[in-house]
What does this fold into?
Amino acid sequence: MNLQAKELNQVIRTQNPAVYELLSERGRNIFFPRKGILGQSADAKGTRINATIGAAIEDDGTPMRLDALASRIQLDPALVFPYAPSYGRADIRTQWKSMLYLKNPSLNGLTLSLPVVTNALTHAVSMAGYLFANPGDEIITPDLFWGNYNLILNHGYGTAFKTYPLFDGAKMNIAAFKAAINGEGNKKILILNFPNNPTGYSPTVVEAMQLAAELKQAAESGKKIVVFVDDAYFGLVYEDGVEKESIFTRLANLHENLLAVKLDGPTKEDYVWGFRVGFITYGIKGGTSELYAALEQKTAGAVRGNISNASNLSQSLLVQAFQNPDYYRQKEEKFAVMKERFLAVKQALLDGKYDGFFTAMPYNSGYFMCIKLADGIDGEQLRALLISKYSIGIINLNNMIRIAFSAVAAKDVKSMFDGIYEACKELRA
It folds into this structure.
């Protein structure tokens, strides 16, 4: 094991032994190289002649670039063309952290790590798996989860999923969640994704309290727990009584045996799907600056060894947007559009004629909602018929249909459900 990895492990073990136990073998072995080429390049920063960095520089000291590109981008070339740090740009890291507190007032007063930048949330999930999941480890997740977890964690890192039913009727199945986290084994890895993909469900305030209480009890019993908080759709909550802050706020100071790992980014929050910028932020009760710095170094090392760094251009554009005085007003306008579509779904599904063919599953937030098909209607046949005859596209998940109302104009929602209804009638006939 590299000496720098050993040094980080010693810091983590000293600050919180439970966090060290949660690290995977990869996580224990990884480090951010403060020596070697990176260290020597850092030492040479500011020199008159700097021949350390693997990038080309114009004679005037600015980044070498093609005008065919530079002429299209209205930013300082220094914010566009050079590499970003593997940790991410310092300005966006501090900006995003301050925004976490603004968007989640319950975090005020809590000490968190500085976010580390990833190549969007998919990469953040991968880096969390890298750092904490060994081959053969079980990852606890509800039975309804984002399919890409399979590629990232199951096929990519050799983990196994232990699922529990997300719903008990119209509510979260807290009893099943409790049973899952209190099963055999001392180390527990779980994913909480709200608003949930595919269902578009977020816990009520009461359910969020219950989830946290069950996790605290498990941690108090001696379980070592790491929770991946997938906040891809954070902020898109449309109903009263539903938890509007991230579940991370209830976990980041819950117990010394529980490490909360917030995986988020502007992809959905700020409608920048192609920018590919995400963040990993750590929170744990009693977390110290030394513990968080060690985790940040390991995370940056994992990023460095995986993709080197995320897009400098995307990070620079986002910083500019976050500092724009109209940023929050524009976000409110887009939220209003999304809520209008959500309400259009609610209104459309009041039509009783659908009841014999499909029923809505619980939903209150996010981009999606799901309908469960009645017995005798094949989801794959329905999907094909909707495309060929009705020009409607949906996702079939084992006879549960996922509908991305985020992509459907409010005026088209009723005709979409009427098309699904007519196609169901055809198939049943």
